[in-house]
Amino acid sequence: MVNKFNIPAQQQEHPGSDAQLKPQAEFIAKDYLGSKKLVGKVALITGGDSGIGRAAALHFAKEGAEVAITYLKDSDVEKVDAEWVKDWVENEGGVCRIYPVDLRHSQEGIDLVKHVVADFGKLNIVVNNAGTQYPNDDLATLEDEQWLDTFATNVHSMFYVTKAALPHLSEGDVIINTSSVNGYLGPGNMVDYSTTKGAQISFTRALSNQLLKRGIRVNAIAPGPVWTPLQPASLGRFNPQFVENYGGNSPMERCGQPSELGPSFVFLASSDSSFITGQTLHPNGGMMVGG
């Protein structure tokens, strides 16, 4: 199958940078017109500097939300990406603040939410999007450190940020968790990553039931192959050829662009999805999954 984006073999140093992607990813379609769905809302997006998180931030801003994004502390490439998002939002007339954090540590999640509420005065939308992956095709060689780091980044951070945010959320506010199709498919070379993605789905379902009486909705998005820096920084670092024609084996014979996921986040963040909670959207190029 031929990937319609003609993605060449490549690699990056972890965690990866949007600026180094070849070809460049699209984060919001040129003809996307916001309709003020999120005016008056404040959104916090972890990992909002690049990839899917960046697309969510740009679409939220286009819909009138003020946005707070995080990037990995001490990462120069992520800092550059985060500043790009801030500049873009401000050029559109919006408000964006950036926060360097390491959300593997609970206190950083607590401090992050405290700073966001102090800076913006409130919090309405929490997008738990920060994540990582490291391919490994033999469980016997999967280091304990990698297993723990993947869980700390993908699952523990979600718990820390959400727990800190809950006292500031009220009826009508929302939580959106970025999971993955791999939480359903379970590829053999990503046991630790896939396990965390399954945990995120269960976290979403259980928390949605817990928060029903408070009127806070909790949903997830489980993307298929999407062109983000995580691919050349993980798959590509393992083997640059793994990135070539990335997503070409999907039913649509291509990977998705981050811009194709942004509207899903807007839908779940807005009142358009007022009767939806505990669910997962599947923008994955036609892959059939259960759940």
Describe the protein's architecture and organization.
The protein is of the alpha/beta class. It has a single domain (36-281), classed as NAD(P)-binding Rossmann-like Domain (Rossmann fold). It is built from 8 helices and 7 strands; from the N terminus they run βαβαβαβαβααβααβ. The protein has helices spanning 51-62, 76-91, 106-120, 144-165, 182-185, 191-211, 230-238, 262-269, and strands at residues 42-45, 66-72, 96-101, 125-128, 174-178, 217-221, 280-281. The chain has a 7-stranded parallel β-sheet, sandwiched between helices. Strand 4 (125-128), helix 4 and strand 5 form a beta-alpha-beta unit. Helix 3 (106-120) runs parallel beside helix 4. The radius of gyration is 18 Å and the shape is globular. The protein starts with 41 loop residues before the first strand and ends in a 10-residue tail after the last strand.
Strand order of the largest sheet: 3-2-1-4-5-6-7
CATH class wording: Alpha Beta
Order of helices and strands: EHEHEHEHEHHEHHE
Q: How far apart lie the N and C ends?
A: 28 Å
The CATH superfamily turns out to be: NAD(P)-binding Rossmann-like Domain
What portion of the residues fall into strands of 2 or more residues? 5-15%
Characterize the overall form: globular
Q: Would you tell me the overall average pLDDT?
A: 95
Structural class: alpha/beta
Q: Which fold does the CATH topology refer to?
A: Rossmann fold
| Number of H- or I-type helical stretches | 8
Tally of distinct domains: 1
Number of strands: 7
User: Helix coverage percent of residues?
Assistant: 25-40%
The biggest beta sheet reads: 7 strands, parallel
Low-pLDDT segments: none
> Do you know the CATH architecture?
3-Layer(aba) Sandwich
| Cα gyration radius (Å) | 18 Å
InterPro entries: NAD(P)-bd_dom_sf (IPR036291), SDR_fam (IPR002347)
Family: Belongs to the short-chain dehydrogenases/reductases (SDR) family.
Keywords: Oxidoreductase
Region (Disordered): 1-20
